[in-house]
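Hi R.,

As promised on Friday, here is the backbone we talked about, encoded as structure tokens. Could you run it through your design pipeline when you get a chance and send me back a sequence?
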């Protein structure tokens, strides 16, 4: 049952013609008591027409990837935060759907269920979620004529969505996972290449010189090698494809002047001062149960919980969420071109040629302050259009 206060709010919103979500009971303790129910905001004609159309390709999983030995990757939060931001900035970004990929050999349902839970916390219970590849590009490229190959649901969705786009109004694909889904889509239908712009958290250049004594799998930093190593063949296919490709390094444990893209204050993440503001922030929805037995009522409360789960030194890398913010605020970063790199399986390292004709973009000089503050402010006071509610 709703409390009297919640019933009054819903009644007032209904009288104004503003949709309100079924929020359920109010938590009986904590700051969530003060959270108002989620309401849907109306897009203006300008907002509706000018928003980039975005597809999010993710391996989001509750408590991250259990197969990696790196604690920060076990507790990855970038994908969940990116999804929260994409859904709560409907004034600036039009999320068309989410494709999933499993990067640790488990069930693809681990990714699908996490996306469903996070979307529910944002009031968007009907967002299309497509099951992607568990296997690798090498294993699957010969099965694209099969109607139900591993990843077919996501691959076909990427192709269909890209065909609605155009070179002057491309489909923006934010990739926070291995390159399998998009590589398979481009292989199955190469004609979509001019219609897509891919933003991928996958590079360790420049900046690798500060960790040159470590093999990629032992480097004491994140970088983008995680996504590359999960499917090197798909990565190389994508890096060589005739598409608009933007790369972003994830994070480094050793900030330096040569590390790119660099955050202005030297640490590519969100500090504990901002992270502390998450607790129970944002409008309230019906309780969403998570695998740890906890129920969350706001996107902010869950964002705060996973921030604290593996907080390390008090900073958390924002990874894919940084890219999501930059899609709405490109003025907070610079971009430069580099010759397209490739992964050399024999040496276990990325190769960055000194010359070549195929170029890709690399994020540079990113404003940590702008990105972090905007993300927290968005969670606290979001714009939710409820395009996908029920």
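Update: got your reply. Pasting your designed sequence below so it's all in one thread:
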């Amino acid at each position: 049952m709703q409390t009297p206060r919640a019933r009054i709010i819903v009644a007032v919103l209904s009288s104004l013609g503003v949709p309100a979500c079924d929020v359920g009971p109010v938590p009986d303790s904590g700051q969530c008591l003060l959270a108002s129910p989620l309401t849907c905001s109306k897009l203006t004609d300008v907002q509706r027409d000018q928003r980039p159309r975005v597809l999010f390709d993710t391996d989001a999983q509750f408590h991250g990837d259990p197969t990696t030995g790196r604690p920060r990757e076990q507790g990855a939060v970038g994908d969940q935060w990116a999804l929260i931001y994409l859904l709560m900035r409907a004034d600036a970004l039009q999320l068309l759907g989410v494709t999933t990929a499993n990067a640790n050999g488990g069930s693809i349902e681990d990714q699908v269920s996490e996306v469903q839970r996070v979307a529910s916390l944002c009031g968007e219970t009907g967002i299309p979620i497509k099951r992607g590849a568990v296997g690798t590009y090498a294993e699957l490229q010969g099965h694209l004529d099969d109607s139900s190959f591993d990843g077919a649901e996501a691959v076909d969705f990427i192709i269909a969505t890209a065909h609605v786009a155009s070179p002057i109004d491309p489909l923006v694909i934010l990739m926070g996972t291995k390159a399998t889904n998009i590589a398979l889509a481009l292989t199955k239908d190469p004609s979509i290449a001019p219609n897509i712009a891919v933003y991928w958290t996958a590079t360790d250049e420049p900046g690798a010189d500060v960790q040159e004594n470590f093999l990629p799998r032992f480097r004491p930093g994140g970088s983008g090698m995680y996504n590359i190593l999960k499917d090197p063949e798909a990565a190389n296919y994508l890096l060589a494809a005739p598409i608009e490709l933007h790369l972003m390094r994830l994070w480094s444990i050793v900030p330096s002047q040569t590390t790119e893209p660099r955050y202005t204050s030297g640490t590519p993440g969100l500090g504990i001062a901002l992270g502390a503001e998450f607790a129970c922030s944002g409008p309230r929805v019906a309780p969403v149960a998570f695998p740890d037995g906890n129920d969350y009522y706001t996107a902010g409360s869950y964002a705060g919980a996973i921030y604290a789960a593996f907080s390390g030194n008090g900073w958390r890398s924002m990874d894919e969420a940084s890219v999501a913010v930059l899609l709405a605020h490109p003025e907070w970063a610079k971009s430069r071109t580099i010759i397209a790199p490739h992964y050399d399986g024999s040496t276990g390292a990325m190769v960055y040629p000194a010359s070549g004709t195929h170029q890709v973009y690399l994020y540079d000089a990113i404003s940590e302050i702008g990105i972090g503050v905007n993300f927290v402010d968005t969670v606290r006071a979001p714009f939710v259009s409820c395009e996908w509610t029920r």
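One thing I noticed while checking it: The longest strand covers residues 94-100.

Thanks again,
M.
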